[in-house]
Write a structure and sequence with these properties.
- The structure is a single chain.
- By secondary structure, the protein is an all-alpha fold.
- The protein has one domain.
- The protein is 63% helix and 0% strand.
- Helix 1 packs antiparallel against helix 6 and helix 4 packs across helix 5.
- The longest helix is centred in the first third of the chain and has 43 residues.
- The radius of gyration is 33 Å and the shape is rod-shaped.
């Protein structure tokens, strides 16, 4: 038989307490703040990049249309109006933009710019271009529409 060992003098093993989850140590706060700042910065860069890309594409599209239709003012005015409509559909709610035509389309364009580009000849062209045949379009103010379109694009992309 084996000798009996006296275990009465042993004490229980005490494990260290678990670290508390709150309050977090300073290192964690620094790391969390850094990660949140990094995510916000990446998001802002992403938004800015896409805004510049959209603006660049739209301005290139205006230049392309001017080269494609140098003598056809009617077709150029029609395409510029459609380009502005495509941009408006990207930025504003579809329900608000789809139903616009004629005078309401002109008023919408005028409301969405800081200056009154569409109150003069450019607005007359945009208001009537989709409703008249090419033979009736006799307007020498296409340059005003081009400038108004460029300004509207720069403010809305």
């Amino acid at each position: 038989m084996q000798p009996q060992i006296d275990l009465s003098g042993l004490r229980d093993v005490h494990l260290p307490s678990l670290p508390s989850l709150w309050p977090l140590p300073v290192d964690f706060w620094i790391a969390i703040t850094g990660m949140i700042s990094f995510v916000v910065l990446i998001r802002l860069v992403w938004i800015r990049y896409h805004r510049l890309t959209a603006k660049k594409y739209a301005n290139e599209e205006v230049e392309r249309l001017m080269k494609k239709f140098p003598q056809d003012d009617y077709r150029l005015a029609t395409e510029l109006s459609l380009l502005m409509r495509r941009i408006a559909l990207m930025k504003y709610p579809r329900e608000k933009v789809c139903a616009l035509s004629g005078k309401t389309w002109r008023e919408f364009l005028d409301k969405t710019t800081k200056k009154d580009f569409f109150k003069a000849e450019a607005g007359d062209i945009v208001e009537k271009i989709m409703f008249i045949p090419p033979e009736q379009f006799k307007n020498g103010h296409i340059s005003e529409l081009i400038e108004a379109t460029k300004q509207w694009i720069s403010e809305n992309t």
